[in-house]
User: What shape does this take?
Amino acid sequence: MSEAMLDRLPYARFLGLRTVMQDDALTVIMPFADRLIGNPMLPALHGGSTAALLEMTAIAQVALSYPRLRLPRPINVTVAYLRSGRPVDVHARATISRAGRRVAHVMAEAWQDEPGQPIASLTAHFLLAD
Amino acid sequence: MSDTFLDQIMPQLASGAAHTHALGFVYEGYEGDRVRIRVPWREDLVGDPDTGVLSGGLVTTALDHVGGLAIWLALGTFRPIATLDLRVDYMRASVRGLDLVTEARCYRLTRTVGFVRAWAFEERIDDPIAAAQSVYMITDEAARAPNLEARS
Assistant: This one.
């Protein structure tokens, strides 16, 4: 169910996100497209597109783990940029560090060729209930 | 010289790349050390189709980008920069159909690092959708080529 969840979200479609399910974990892929380029000189992906991928991955993972909810809403997100995003596909995975009654803490990482060499990481809180 | 930068180069930096162009970013100009980008509301920028609220990822992208403009405004010229990190607090949902406006200010600039605060809102900055605090590395032109080689 959650595999198709991102397909419902217009901005996830704008970014071209694809969801792959492995065991209980989601991997979200942002296939390379020219419209993701933020720096044409390097060239490099716009950091915002990578941040959006990370946030969408976190939302999808929370929605998968807590299917009773409407869409989890972000309270805050922190993104650290570790490497320049080259013009190739980006993959992302999220882990729920803790989920209470109202708030979930989620961490996520994005990488390109090597999972051990992340290009960005996210730490975020999501509201689970209104 | 600097007027050419502010009046001709800054608008290109605001919306000239493929991603910012695709998102429809519009340069709104600067006043003092504050600079603005407007993002006209569009259906495909929405994060939740049931409410029409803009995607958090879009808000983050606009805040990241306008923060970069604030660095260039503070520098008064173009230098390659890279976002080191970015924190966004989401205060409330955006309103369906209303443009997103972002404003940023670089409140401290060193030779290598710039510190920025930025806000996202529709009509009034004191009624924000989101607020950001971010740090940008300012690349030394001379050190740039070796770094790029090391990366590839």
Remarks:
- The first strand of chain B starts at residue 26 and ends at 31.
- Helices of chain B lie at 2-15, 18-22, 56-75, 141-151.
